[in-house]
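Ticket #4471: structure export looks truncated?
Reporter: QA, pipeline team
Priority: medium

Steps to reproduce: submit the single chain below to the structure queue and open the exported record.
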Amino acid sequence: MSVARRRACIVFSCALAGALGCTDEPPAAGESLKLALARAEAERRAAPVSDARQLADPATLRAALARPAHEVLPRLGGVEYSLTLSAQAVDTDGGGEQARFSDTVSLRVEPDGDFALIHDVDWAIAGDAQGQSGRRCVWFEGAWYTAGRHGPATRIPVRDDEPRRCLASGLAPLRDLLDRVVDELELSPSGPVEVLGRGAQRVVGLRAPRPAQVPPAVPEAWGEAHRERAIDSKAIFGPRGSLFAEATDLREAKVSLTLDDATGAPLEARVEAAFAFRKLSRNGRLAITLALQAQRPAGPVIPPANARVWGPRPRPFAELAAWTQAPKAEAADPALPGPGEAPELELEMEKVPAPPPAPSPAADGGAPPMEDAP
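Actual output as written to the record:
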């Protein structure tokens, strides 16, 4: 019996057990433990956040933000998020602004799990370059669409958990930033509030007073020496985490966060943080501001217009290689000799008579040959 069927047998009542094909077969001890752990994990994820004092604990707050988005957000009954993040890196030794970045996210989620995400990134480096990137992804009635910031969308087959990862990425900037600063905040409850007609809990936090520390120096390039700080990878210059997460000292922070009572999903957030860092023996300051607001969606999630449909691309070189490397036919032509059956090659030399010598002109009575003048 499969694990899924046994789990269904345990959860549902005996009246449904016959329809599901349950038996009285007891699960193995190890499997019972797995089911108990899975049930406890599901209950933990679904546990309501009914008291803001719970959120004053950094571990509880971090756990609430870590709940899977595909399990939490559809339970809000239809929601549309607007998230903006701006970051500025300044050389505090007199070099002025060095870089500026901004993220803009629009995420619409329906109760049935359909969602649409628009994520745009703009950046500029002082005196060097500027650019933009972004992505769009839509999950609509079991169809998966993706697109870049510019260009048409394409309907493609689902690869692994790509739709769930895309949905989770919509609120990832808030989660990542709070994960960096929450342990250094003095959190306090701000009382129950109401957002979108739902009960919610608000918590505020300020950076706990402590002496400033010298931040670790940011390397000029990320190579082998920095691999131990991140996951194992074959990337030449990585992998690495964000600058504010790995090589900074938090100097200022102000946080206001509102979480839904029933699901723990964020409904409102405002984060202002400033970090110190060092690079090339110079001091820098990274200032980040993030704002998040949830509201009721203005309309339903719809599939992209004029979307292309994915199909296997032609691969002429692969087909050519397969053709040239195809095994030869086993049946040999009987008219051709096999290996070692060819007759020996015999060479015969034919003697050719030498031509007779040419007659002399004097012997034929002709004029004598010309002589050089003295």
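Status: closed, not a bug. The export was complete when the record was re-opened. Leaving a note from the reviewer for reference: The chain has a mean pLDDT of 78.
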